[in-house]
Specification:
The complex is a heterodimer of chains A (364) and B (399). Chain A is mainly α and 364 residues long. Helix content of chain A is 65%, strand content 1%. A two-stranded antiparallel ribbon of chain A has the order 1-2. In chain B, helix 5 runs antiparallel to helix 12 (284-308) and helix 12 runs parallel beside helix 15. In chain B, 49% of the residues are buried. Chain B has 16 helices and 8 strands. Classes of the chains: A mainly alpha (364), B mainly alpha (399). The A-B interface holds A 50, 53-56, 150-151, 154, 242-243, 245-246, 249-252, 254, 326-335 and B 33, 35-36, 41-43, 57, 144-151, 154-155, 158, 214-215, 218, 220-221, 223-224, 379-382, 384.
């Protein structure tokens, strides 16, 4: 069996310049293809799930059971007129959607989709993802300022305050895992969690390896569950989803920072939002739920099958995000900040402290 | 208002460069932002325009601008005969036309001294309470949507659909009925209507419970709506508030109980008032809670109507409709309790087939006038929730 995709390509066409070029193309294009396909499925899921939650049918006319509706919507967005407000700051206004999309697309480079495929194996993988996700903030601020629209400006200011604040509890939650694993490389973190459910970091990490606590690792479970919950809530806030969708609060700010955008630029914001949803869900599954590992050792765990487990786990989080969106009301700005600074950060700090203590004194 | 006064002082702009340590913080100046909300904003419940003066996100002042839906109803009414006014009455409070029609019909009937058959009275009360529920369903649903919860809105509309079906079966119209006439009704009840009402009451009680679980006692929702938009009882009375807005402030005043019209004195029902159960008396939660309770009370009234309804009474519902409506010279002020509050008609007759003057005291208009008072000092997000809690219908505000 091939250890990674590169070897697979080499075995097909032999090692040479051609195989190198092909590897680069395949490695970089795969996430983009995945984002596009996933966005279509997720948008349809959002439409249908919201409809089922609300006693409706959802789209039914485009294709059987309306499954072609996202494609129709996308075609519609491509055809629409690309408008720019007269008094907008043209450079910022036009660059913003691309920066937002690039920010969320770049995160996909370091995601370990399977044992044989991760776009780029970076030894500070999770750190890299947290860093490039920060680029999204710049794009949002540019969109809000460049639109020269008060609603957009209010929305982008809220969004920046929110994302910057919630990166802290998310970072603290990530830190707990990094401390146990002793690495930031997402592929290594995934490898550590091999061998079934009990080795996942939500249950305290690998039990068999010396140096990671062995049987003691079980006592980390409650702390890791807290970390996991903190990460899930913070990730909802980072992707601007309900109950933290304050930046684009429809009833207050019309559409927030993308009020003035139309056609493909709007589609890019939309795509970035969905890509972001997937990215944070994928990180949650890598860090806490074993990434591409099967929950039972030896059950469907061929190297390529990891991709199915990985996407399946990430997608179920996306579904949970959709479910939450159509159930809960929205928080207010000050309440959002209250939860972040006065609830989640203290809890996150305490978890980091306790996990650190346990790892230091018991594991070694 | 202190904030505003402080901001209003124009401070001289320094002309030369001052070192940072010498700058007096009091001389630094920030500016308010005037945000135009509406008339095409998703949460203004129609075509209302608000001019909000914001300091960051803090609302310093808000001024409602009206008139985008003005249709000269009062002037129109002078050019028409008395029965011709009824369809125009529908178009005022288009979420509760039955309530508006009853008010107009009662006013003219009182001027002419018409007694309507008992069966007609029962149907009027039945339909008025159904209408009140339908209207409160929209109010509760859109209020939830203002707070960011989308799903309860559709549950509310699903139930409202049942009420509209009952009305459609009776008079053929779903929104603007022209059903309650001066002296009678346009159609008798369809034979199915009573059983449909019974089914509706049963279903609606379940929805009431569901909305309470999903929305009213949702922690996030309570956090959002409690302790904001506080309307003190004395301010409410002095400002002329009525309906759930007044009762939310704890004032027990309901025209159905305190100035009974039609046959409301025959039914037992409670007048729910706000108690400040989740925060302060008269906050947005209290107004929402009063609407939820009134929904339940209306269901109680409907059950009593269904119980007492004279089913074997074959009286023609148009028996008391006069051939020629021409009240003697005089004037009348007649009022009813609609879903939004006290709807009053002041009609002057000069012994003609046209009214000489029809002045409407619309509850939504008066309630809206209190919006600036109750929304100063809260955040922009709260302003939208407070506006939602007032539950305005622009057709009635502008007329």
């Amino acid at each position: 069996m091939f250890q990674d995709l590169n070897q697979f390509i080499v075995s097909l066409i032999g090692k040479g310049d051609l195989s190198d070029i092909l590897s680069v193309v395949v490695y970089s294009a795969l996430p983009l293809v995945l984002i596009l396909l996933y966005a279509l499925v997720a948008i349809l899921g959002e439409m249908k799930i919201s409809a089922w939650l609300q006693d409706r049918l959802g789209p039914m006319r485009t294709g059987p059971y309306g499954i072609l509706q996202p494609i129709a919507d996308m075609l519609k967005l491509i055809q629409k007129e690309d408008t720019t407000p007269k008094l907008a700051d043209k450079k910022l206004y036009n660059a913003a959607p691309f920066i937002v999309f690039i920010g969320s697309y770049m995160a996909f480079a370091a995601l370990p989709f399977a044992a044989m495929y991760a776009g780029a194996r970076i030894n500070t993988g999770i750190f890299y993802i947290v860093a490039v996700s920060g680029v999204v903030v710049v794009g949002i601020l540019m969109a809000g300022w460049g639109s020269n629209n008060k609603y957009a400006l209010l929305g982008s200011m809220r969004s920046v305050a929110q994302i910057v604040s919630y990166e802290i509890p998310a970072g603290l939650a990530i830190l707990s895992v990094v401390m146990i694993a002793g690495t930031m490389d997402l592929q290594t973190i995934s490898h550590l969690q091999q061998g079934g459910l009990q080795n996942w970091f939500i249950f305290g990490g690998p039990k068999s390896l010396a140096g990671f606590g062995g049987g003691y690792a079980w006592i980390l479970t409650p702390l890791m569950v807290v970390s996991f919950l903190i990460y899930i809530v913070a990730s909802l806030a980072e992707t601007n989803r309900v109950p933290f969708d304050i930046p684009e609060a429809e009833s207050e700010l019309v559409a927030g920072y993308h009020t003035e955008y139309s056609a493909m630029k709007f589609a890019l914001f939309f795509l970035a939002e969905y890509a972001n949803m997937f990215a944070v869900s994928a990180i949650a599954s890598v860090l806490f739920l074993g990434g591409w590992n099967s929950p039972i050792a030896g059950f469907l765990d061929a190297p390529w099958m990891g991709a199915i487990w990985f996407i399946g786990k990430a997608f179920s989080f996306v579904l949970i995000q959709i479910w939450i969106r159509w159930t809960l009301p929205r928080l207010r700005v000050d309440q959002l900040m209250h939860i972040c600074w006065k609830v989640m950060i203290p809890f996150g700090m305490a978890t980091v402290l306790l996990v650190g203590t346990i790892v230091t004194f018991l594991a070694h | 208002m202190e904030v505003l006064e402080r901001k209003m002082q124009t401070l001289p702009v320094p002309t030369k460069v001052i070192p940072a340590e010498q700058i007096d913080p009091k001389r630094l100046r920030t500016e308010e932002m005037v945000l135009n909300v509406g008339p095409q904003h998703p949460s203004t419940h129609g075509v209302l325009r608000l001019e909000a003066v914001l300091d960051g996100e803090l609302v310093i002042d808000v001024v409602p601008f009206l008139g985008y839906l003005h249709r000269c109803f009062e002037k129109h009414a002078e050019a028409m005969t008395y029965p011709q006014v009824v369809p125009y009455v529908d178009r005022m409070d288009y979420l509760a036309p039955m309530n508006g029609e009853l008010g107009y019909a009662l006013a003219v009937e009182r001027m002419m001294g018409i007694e309507v058959p008992e069966k007609v009275e029962y149907i009027r009360v039945l339909f008025n309470e159904l209408q009140r529920i339908a209207s409160h369903l929209v109010a509760v649903g859109t209020f939830g949507m203002d707070a960011g919860a989308f799903t309860p809105f559709l549950y509310c509309f699903r139930d409202r659909e049942d009420v509209l079906e009952i009305f459609e079966k009776t008079c053929g119209a779903r929104l603007l009925y022209n059903y309650i006439w001066v002296g009678g009704l346009s159609h008798d009840l369809h034979p199915d209507v009573l059983s449909m009402c019974r089914a509706f009451v049963k279903k609606s009680r379940a929805t009431h419970k569901e909305i309470n679980e999903l929305l009213t006692f949702n922690k996030i929702f309570v956090e959002r709506v409690a302790n904001i938009g506080i309307l003190k009882p004395d301010v409410a009375i002095n400002g002329g508030a009525s309906g759930p807005m007044l009762r939310g402030s704890g004032v027990k005043w309901d025209l159905r109980r305190d100035d009974p019209y039609s046959i409301y004195d025959r039914f037992e029902f409670e007048v729910p008032v706000g108690t400040g159960m989740m925060g302060t008396l008269g906050d947005c939660f209290d107004r929402h809670w009063v609407r939820m309770c009134e929904w339940e009370q209306s269901l109680n009234i409907i059950e009593q109507v269904l119980e007492k309804f004279p089913q074997n009474d074959k009286t023609d519902v148009q028996k008391a409709v006069p051939k020629r409506i021409k009240p003697a010279a005089g004037e009348i002020y007649s009022r009813v309790e609609t879903a939004r509050g006290e709807l009053g008609y002041y009609i002057i007759s000069k012994d003609n087939i046209n009214p000489w003057r029809v002045k409407v005291r619309s509850p939504a208009f008066v309630n809206l006038s209190l919006l600036p008072i109750i929304s100063r000092g809260y955040l922009m997000a709260d302003l939208i929730v407070i506006l939602g809690s007032v539950d305005i219908v622009l057709g009635e505000v502008d007329r």
